[in-house]
């Protein structure tokens, strides 16, 4: 019990004291996960809307593939990306293995299907009158797509938060392709695993508290936006 209490005391010291290694890990985590979700959103939001609204051959197969990838085991994603970027792999010439770039690719592969699938559900559940009204006003297909995405924006924000949560919580894939290298590719989740194994509980606890804090802020923001969306719809 004394070790736990001491660990929390030292953890607060790391958070408040501006420890360079600690905050470097936090910053890299936010950068990698933020960029991964931004890329996943740029691909996943329009792709999800197209899958929801489109009527083309193979649509259901694509939807099934997206829903399957939403539960993609992280170690499988890590293995595939490792093989792609290894020296003997087809993308080995990029020399991205054991760099933050490979970690961004890994997290994007995990977050993008979630964003795509949840966007497809959000847009597909909208009242068809929105689409018909836009078409009646002479909107093009692209303008209809944008209108539907705008109408479902609050649910899509939830999809983005879910994708960010998946990315930030990832351990296996980023450790496989990033290597958990100190000062270079060590993020919060991989650092917690390492520090706990080494008995350095203060660093592990401090990083865990930051992760919980980020999750709390994200979920609070999502709830506020959802309530705002419900208020707008009532009006």
Features:
MetI-like fold, 235 residues, mainly alpha, 0% strand, single chain, 79% helix
Q: Can you describe what's shown?
A:
The chain has 235 residues and is mainly alpha-helical. The protein has one domain: MetI-like (MetI-like fold). It has 11 helices and no strands. It has helices spanning 2-17, 20-53, 59-69, 74-85, 100-124, 128-136, 141-151, 153-168, 172-178, 188-197, 201-234. Helix 3 crosses helix 5 (100-124), helix 4 (74-85) packs across helix 5 (100-124) and helix 6 (128-136) runs antiparallel to helix 7 (141-151). The longest helix is centred in the first third of the chain and has 34 residues, at 20-53. The radius of gyration is 21 Å and the shape is globular. The termini are far apart. The mean pLDDT is 87.
Return the string of H and E elements. HHHHHHHHHHH
Strand segment count: 0
Into which percentage range does the β-strand content fall?
under 5%
- Specify the number of helices: 11
């Amino acid at each position: 019990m004394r070790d736990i209490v001491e660990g929390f005391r030292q953890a607060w010291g790391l958070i408040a004291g501006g420890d360079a290694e600690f905050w470097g890990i936090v910053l890299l985590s936010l950068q990698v996960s933020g960029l991964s979700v931004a890329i996943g959103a740029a691909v996943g939001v329009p792709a999800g809307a197209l899958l929801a609204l489109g009527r083309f051959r193979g649509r259901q197969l694509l939807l099934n593939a997206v829903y399957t990838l939403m539960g993609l085991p992280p170690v499988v994603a890590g293995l595939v990306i490792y093989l792609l970027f290894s020296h003997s792999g087809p993308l080995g010439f990029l020399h991205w293995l054991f760099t933050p770039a490979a970690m961004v690719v890994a997290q994007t592969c995990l977050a993008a299907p979630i964003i795509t699938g949840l966007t497809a559900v959000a847009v597909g559940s909208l009242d068809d009158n929105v689409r018909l009204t836009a078409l009646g006003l002479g909107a093009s297909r692209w303008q209809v797509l944008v209108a539907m995405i705008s109408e479902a924006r609050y649910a899509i924000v939830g999809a983005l938060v879910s994708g960010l949560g998946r990315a930030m919580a990832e351990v296996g894939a980023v450790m496989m392709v990033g290597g958990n290298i100190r000062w270079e590719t060590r993020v919060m989740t991989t650092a917690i695993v390492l520090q706990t194994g080494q008995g350095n509980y203060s660093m592990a606890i401090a990083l865990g508290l930051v992760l919980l804090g980020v999750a709390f802020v994200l979920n609070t923001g999502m709830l506020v936006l959802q309530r705002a969306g419900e208020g707008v719809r009532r009006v």
